[in-house]
Amino acid sequence: MSDLLLKLRDLHTDIGQYHILHGVDLEVPRGQVTMLLGRNGAGKTTTLRSIMGILPPHRGAVTLDGRAVTGLNSALIARQGVALVPEDMGIFANLTVEENLTLASLDGPPDPKRLERIFTAFPALRTFWKGRAGTLSGGQKQMLSVARAMISERRLYLIDEPSKGLAPAIVSTLAKALRELKSEGATILMVEQNFRLAKALGDRAAVMDNGRVIWSGAMADLASAPDLQSRLMGLSLEDHT
């Protein structure tokens, strides 16, 4: 395994009176795509939000590139080079596509070369550049959400179910863009229920259940072992799209 960019140790997080994470241990290697898998309600989204500081853990440690970031607010964590693509997309519906991407850029106006790469990946964003984000289709909003994370180079991308509810053609477009991001050496931690997409993109996988990581290893090992998939998640990857 390459050196680690992100480490979680004994992470515990509550939401109100509910104890959601029960001691999560997770390692994310630099320059790889790590898939966070598991049944609904296993704690995957809460894990991403805890890393980002949106849901501060009450116990345990989050370490980014050797530096503890536990307890920092989400704005400071973003300044450490971490981007979150949330499940609800997190775009500003009343702002234009241009304004959404400009706000997401860490270093002032978007870099023209990086912007051109985004337009190549998501041509609809060029078409609706001056249009309000709220008028986009669901797939186009997801493209914008991913593009907001990509508009500046980040050390770590946290991506929560980018293919959820999207048509196969839109999923294919997103997959191509994420492959391009991966080819640039990006480090990605991604929650995904589309297991074929997880298999295609993932280098490593971690499976969660009941607020803990119960298995971690190479994505290829998990993808080639239906019995292991069934034992860990109650399903076979090959049976789900």
Automatic annotation (TrEMBL):
Domain named ABC transporter: residues: 6-235
PROSITE patterns per UniProt: ABC_TRANSPORTER_1, ABC_TRANSPORTER_2
Xref: InterPro entries: AAA+_ATPase, ABC_transporter-like_ATP-bd, ABC_transporter-like_CS, BCAA_Transport_ATP-bd_LivF, P-loop_NTPase
Organism for this UniProt entry: Falsigemmobacter faecalis
Single Gene Ontology BP annotation: L-amino acid transport
Pfam families: ABC_tran (PF00005)
Keywords assigned by UniProt, alphabetized: Amino-acid transport, ATP-binding, Nucleotide-binding, Transport
The protein's name in its UniProt record: ABC transporter ATP-binding protein
SMART domains, per the entry: AAA
Family: Belongs to the ABC transporter superfamily.
GO MF term set: ATP binding; ATP hydrolysis activity; branched-chain amino acid transmembrane transporter activity
